[in-house]
Design brief:
Radius of gyration of chain A: 17 Å
Oligomer: heterodimer
CATH class of chain A: Mainly Beta
Largest interface: A-B, 54 and 69 residues
CATH topology of chain A: outer membrane lipoprotein receptor (LolB), chain A
Number of domains of chain A: 1
Mean pLDDT of chain A: 78
Number of helices of chain B: 30
Number of helices of chain A: 5
CATH architecture of chain A: Clam
Strand order of the largest sheet of chain A: 6-5-4-3-2-1-11-10-9-8-7
Order of helices and strands of chain A: HHEEEEEEHHEEHEEE
CATH superfamily of chain A: Lipoprotein localisation LolA/LolB/LppX
Low-confidence stretches of chain B: 625-633
């Protein structure tokens, strides 16, 4: 028997190391059904993205870009191409991260602090209101041509990492995903044009 | 009683007392040692150490089944807490995040000693610029959202680099604890303080797990449906010992009872029955005494084999009581004893061949049987007649013998069919020649197949496959062993990157050699120098040096820290990983580097050759730098090799099997020679033919029923010859000068044969494979040996003179 049991995904350690900061979860209720219905009609998508991260420890923001792939209802792939290739796949509740030769997998259910990162996007794309509300307090602003979903993690473990996820869109199209970390850092992902199949 | 009677009784009493005191002081064991070689090759020695105390032997896999996931997780966490408080366990892991946190903070705290990326170049201005640039890139990934908390103290990404080097099997979790992939079991992994070879310690650990589980269940209101399963080498050793112990006691008792019932029916005399068991008991005592004197410890399995002695030692007294019924003992002594003595000697010849075997179980069986049979025969000859009442009323079996003679006489007409039988059996064996012999050491294992299946599924769930290939590095110097392991690990990393191997483990991941740690410390610049270089390195990067003050502080601390030792690991789950991979026995330190096959496959021959080459190359180059070697009288001796545990085990088994076959043939030759010298070559051939035919028939029957012949089948065949030679000798004697004793001799042979068949037949139902194999071979074989000997004996042997 090897000692491999002692190791697990790097994610787990990072989760364990992440600075625990208190956060307040907001709660609200809003009829989202129309939006969710519209979103659920989309079966698949393949778009580019750019992401800008504003970190307090850095003098300048960091930029990255890549592609997002979505297959309804529960497969979401975030393929970062620059500056460093990394692929995250969320499928049937299992998250796997591939970086270089290493692929790591874990069950999302066991690690609620990771849920905001991809599940917010996946459940929104799927128009899965109940999945969203299971993990987040959901608020909807704006109208069908310019809407914003505010998602605040319900689980304390997730709230220690992420304060809020804000997703904007027009109709069934997503425009931006902004993640506000518990320590005040934030990242803004901007969805680019649909790629040809 | 006569004067001779008193003398015999006194001598018997004195010897019994002496033997009893030796037997009482002998050491008894039921661990794996009976299956391990006495004079091993280097590979076998390593294998033996692995099996007894190595690498894997301290892990217990614990599964909780039944009930609902919530309750399972709750009870598993409670069980883990209880076991952590128990000094019998070094580490208990259940996948809780506390364990990860402890591990992570250890890795973070010692990152500059653990990371093999720490080189002088990395801490130049250019090296720092590129390392910090890379770390910034990874901050851009979602993972970076959590990694950023590390950035100010670890801007060169050493922690991430160490984590990248770890293998991470996918252990499923459910409700915060490890679970099987199908979600039906909660899983824990415990490392015992006791070595795997310490069966008492393992038994204690297994008992602690059970009582902690019972306590945890008692505190959970809905936990009554939960079941506990424990597996692992220690658990196997414990259950094997319990099984062997229970079976030895039970099987001895059953066969003694059955034989007693048989003899009571045959004799209709309680006195004769009691007297019959005296040679058996003294034979068993003599056997234990001889083994106790000849070996370090008497193995439980030897006592199990010893049960068989009841089946044979009882024969001598049966011959005495039935053949001398209503007659003079002196006449029996004169006429029959020489035949019994020769029969006993042929058996001794057969068993003597086993004594030199490297398979301890076999050697002990040989010695046990020789001492037992000699003593049983001598007691029958010199003691029993003295104690036998002047008039011993036993049942007259003449009528039974006479009808047996008639039946056998009639069957004799069809004896030509035996030639056909021989041909058919030969053909059957030829047809099954490819699958005739078993080839795996596991065939000797007393572990039931269901337990092995449970073990395999737990291993799969915990991502801890039974390692087959191990690189083993030994040295009298721990540092030198670790340095060699590092050199080998570097080459194995290239093989893993090229997907030649699936991966590997090394103790040096968490415990680098002192030399590497010193080299890494030497790579770290002093505080002032580092801060100068850092300012230069940060030009063009979006981070300012004020923010990286924690980095400067941590590097300075690591630069002057004392090197990491195994003791620093204790309390983290990493301790178990290192303990398993680095063992010290006596003056030698051994590092193990288990090699994993590529996903879903076995290591190819080419991959094995590549690993061998890597090991050779890594150890040929002296691991120490030339400069430091000069200061020492010479680098410590290091030996490294790739060990294929399965091949070693199977080689060992094949060696045993070949040895058992050749030793049995030697035994057979000795028997033939003895018979040829004391009788005549022709008569010897005539006596051995039916016995060979009995062996052939049994072998064919085993092959046809899909049983592969193992060591104990071969021993069983030797026993057929040994026991059967007694029958053959009696028929030979009857053919030479039958004087109206045919019915009585036949009756005694029939009763003796039944006793043997019962004795071995009981073994056939044992759940210990080696005992069952012996029983299934010898019981039918002994019966056939009698029948074939009767059918192939000269006609005169079955005819009573009118």
């Amino acid at each position: 028997m090897s000692g491999r049991h002692a190791h697990a995904a790097r994610w787990l350690w990072l989760a364990a190391l992440a600075a625990p900061l208190a956060a307040v979860a907001a709660s609200s209720a809003d009829p989202l059904d129309a939006l969710m219905h519209e979103l659920a009609a989309r079966r698949h998508g393949h778009v580019t993205f750019t992401e800008v991260q504003y970190l307090a420890i850095l003098d300048r923001p960091l930029e990255s870009s890549g592609e997002l792939l979505y297959e309804a209802p529960d497969r979401l792939e975030k393929r970062t191409l620059r500056p460093r290739p990394e692929t995250l796949v969320l499928e049937h509740g299992t998250l796997s991260a591939t970086r270089g030769k290493h692929t790591r997998t874990l069950e999302l259910a066991a690690w609620p602090q990771l849920a905001p990162l991809l599940e917010s996007l996946r459940a929104t794309l799927a128009g899965d209101r109940s999945a969203l509300e299971q993990v987040f307090s959901v608020t909807l602003d704006g109208d069908a041509t310019h809407w914003t979903l505010h998602l605040a993690p319900r689980e304390a473990a997730a709230a220690r990492v992420v304060r809020q996820v804000s997703i904007t869109g027009a109709g069934a199209d997503l425009r931006t995903v902004e993640i506000l970390a518990a320590d005040g850092d934030r990242s803004v992902l901007t969805v680019g044009p649909e790629l040809p199949p | 009683m006569t004067r001779a009677g008193w003398t015999a009784t006194l001598v018997f009493g004195a010897l019994t007392a002496l033997a009893a005191s030796v037997a009482a002081r002998a050491r008894y064991t039921a661990d794996l040692s009976a299956f391990l070689p006495r004079a091993p090759t280097e590979g076998q020695r390593l294998l033996t150490e692995e099996l007894r105390a190595g690498f894997a032997s301290r892990f217990l896999m614990i599964a909780i089944e039944g009930g609902d996931p919530d309750t399972r997780a709750h009870v598993a966490a409670d069980l883990a807490r209880r076991l952590r408080a128990d000094p019998a366990f070094v580490v208990v892991s259940d996948g809780d995040s506390e364990g990860y946190a402890r591990t992570a903070s250890f890795l973070l705290g010692h990152r500059y000693l653990l990371s093999d990326a720490v080189t002088p170049e990395r801490f130049t201005a250019a090296g720092l610029h590129s390392a910090i640039g890379d770390a910034l890139d990874s901050l851009a990934s979602p993972e970076g959202l959590m990694a950023k908390s590390l950035f100010t103290s670890d801007p060169t990404g050493e922690t991430l680099h160490i984590l990248d080097g770890l293998n991470s099997p996918h252990i499923a979790t459910q409700n915060g604890v490890w679970s099987s992939h199908d979600g039906r079991r909660a899983l824990l992994l415990a490392q015992t303080a006791a070595a795997g070879s310490d069966t008492d310690g393992q038994e204690q650990a297994c008992r602690s797990v059970r009582s902690a589980f019972a306590a945890a269940v008692a505190r959970a209101p809905t936990a009554s449906a939960l079941r506990l399963a424990v597996s692992g080498p220690g658990a196997f050793a414990v259950s094997a010992r319990a099984t062997i112990r229970a079976q030895v006691v039970r099987l001895s008792a059953i066969s003694a009872l059955l034989i007693a019932a048989l003899l009571l029916a045959a004799y209709r005399s309680a006195t004769a029955l009691l007297l019959t068991f005296i040679p058996v008991a003294s034979g068993a005592l003599a056997g234990v005494t001889a083994v106790g004197l000849g070996f370090d410890a008497v193995h439980g399995i030897t006592l199990g084999f010893g049960v068989t002695l009841i089946g044979e030692a009882v024969d001598y007294a049966i011959y005495l009581f039935i053949q001398s019924a209503g007659a003079d003992v002196a006449e029996w002594r004169r006429a029959v004893w020489p035949t019994v003595r020769l029969g006993m000697l042929t058996s001794v010849c057969g068993f003597a061949a086993l004594v030199p075997s490297g398979f301890q179980g076999l050697a002990q069986l040989g010695l046990f049987s020789i001492a037992g049979l000699v003593s049983a025969a001598l007691v029958t000859r010199y003691v029993l007649p003295q104690w036998r009442p002047a008039i011993l009323e036993t049942r007259d079996l003449t009528a039974l013998g006479a009808s047996l003679a008639r039946v056998l006489g009639r069957l004799r007409a069809g004896r030509a069919a035996l030639a056909l039988l021989a041909v058919l059996c030969g053909l059957a064996l030829f047809a099954h020649r490819a699958t005739l012999f078993s080839r795996e050491l596991t065939d000797l294992s007393p572990i039931p197949a269901a337990d092995l299946r449970l073990d395999a599924s737990l291993r799969a769930d915990l991502g801890t496959p039974d390692p087959r290939y191990l690189v083993v590095v030994s040295s009298p110097d721990t540092g030198a062993a670790l340095e060699s392991a590092e050199a080998i690990a570097r080459r194995l990393t290239s093989l893993a990157d090229a997907s030649v191997i699936g991966g590997f483990e090394s103790p040096t991941r968490f415990l680098p050699s002192p030399a590497s740690q010193r080299a890494r410390q030497a790579s770290l610049p002093a505080a002032d120098e580092l801060s100068t270089r850092l300012r230069e390195a940060l030009v063009g990067l979006p981070v300012s040096d004020e923010r990286l003050a924690p980095f400067l502080r941590d590097v300075e601390q690591a630069r002057t820290a004392s090197p990491l030792t195994a003791r620093d690991l204790s309390g983290t789950p990493l301790a178990s990983a290192v303990d398993a991979l680095l063992t010290a026995s006596g003056p030698t330190t051994t590092a193990f580097l288990p090699i994993a096959p590529p996903p879903g496959g076995e290591l190819s021959t080419a991959a094995i050759a590549a690993v061998r080459t890597a090991v050779d190359q890594a150890t040929r180059v002296p691991p120490r730098a030339a400069g430091s070697a000069l200061a020492k009288p010479g680098p410590p001796q290091v030996s490294a090799r790739l060990l294929d545990l399965k091949a070693e085990a199977d080689d060992l088994y094949a060696h045993y099997l070949r040895q058992a076959v050749s030793l049995s043939l030697v035994g057979l030759a000795a028997i033939l020679l003895l018979l040829a010298v004391t009788r005549s070559p022709l008569r010897a051939l005539r006596m051995v033919t039916p016995l060979a035919l009995a062996v052939l028939t049994v072998a064919a029957a085993l092959a046809l029923t899909g049983q592969r012949l193992g060591i104990l089948h071969v021993v069983g065949m030797l026993l057929i010859i040994a026991v059967g030679s007694n029958y053959a000798l009696f028929f030979d004697r009857l053919a030479q000068h039958a004087r109206g004793e045919v019915p009585r001799v036949l009756a005694s042979l029939a009763v003796a044969n039944l006793a043997t068949v019962v004795g071995f037949g009981v073994l056939a139902f044992s759940s210990v494979p080696v005992l069952a194999a012996l029983g299934r071979t010898t019981a039918p074989g002994a019966l056939l040996a009698l029948v074939f000997s009767a059918l192939l004996a000269p006609r005169a042997a079955l005819e009573s003179p009118a």
